Amino acid sequence: MIETASVNGKITALAEATVPVLDRGFQYGDSVYEVTRTYGGVPFLLDEHFERLENSARLSKIKLSRTRSESLEEIKRAVTAAKPLAGEDVFVRFIVSRGVGALDLDPATAGPNTFVVIVKPIPPWKKDFYDKGMILFIPTIRRNSPRTLDPNIKCGNYLNNILAVAEAKEQGADDALCLSVDDKLTEASNSNVLFVSGSKVLTPLHEPETDTGNLRGITRTLLQSLCKEAGIVYEERPLRERDLEKMDECFVTSATREIMPVREIRSSSGPRHRFTEGGGATTKKLQELYGQYIEKYKSSHNAEAWF
Ligand SMILES: Cc1ncc(COP(=O)(O)O)c(C=O)c1O
Question: How many CB atoms lie within 10 A of CB 104?
Fold first, then answer.
């Protein structure tokens, strides 16, 4: 496929795409975005991604200049221009910035939106991450509080997550598992984190009234319903570093990582927590259920295929 971008409908090779320097996405990270992918040419959970984008825009007070169907048309044109081969799935990032404005924080000076679509191959995650699992490091930097910058705004300002992942990499880990400012577990830099304790699946609770929050991941929400159907207990609850001792398995979820095992969690002060390499029985079961869901989704949404 040809890595492709669309900027306000203008399609170019990705490396040649540009946005104006006065765009607020570039100046301030004043933008919201989504990442989705295709399976067998079928876009996966697109309605859920549009709903989350609209929610991020609402929370950021960004007025959307395009309707959902206008945005979808621009996405489809970009995907078509990328000319994916049959059977080759695509990664799609779509970004809405508040638009070009004066160098002034007042959002009223900006607009209409800049709408960017990026089409690329699915990220080639290391095979080892699935065969053995990732190593997460708990960095000193804390996850943004919902009372400062709500992690439920999937926005173009990822500096908090970037600093977390940089610290984790400096420690030889693959990714960060961030604590909140009130010492609770939140999420990894670009995925949700889940644990298996006995027969239960546990994941950190989003607590908007306090300082603990995480993004409502679409993959995690899907997993919640798959757990329900399979009779597996799924619970969102406040979790702390000391609770890691009680966890038997750990994995992260995101649209592109799907269900990726974690084999170890380290921190600078506490002990190392080790989990079954490659994921334990529940992680494997959930991977299987997820795979089956995708197969069903592909056949039931065949009419919506992009290519
Ligand atoms: C901070 C953060 N948490 C969680 C996720 C997982 O979300 P999803 O499952 O919708 O991909 C992402 C995905 O990009 C993310 O950036």
Answer: 11
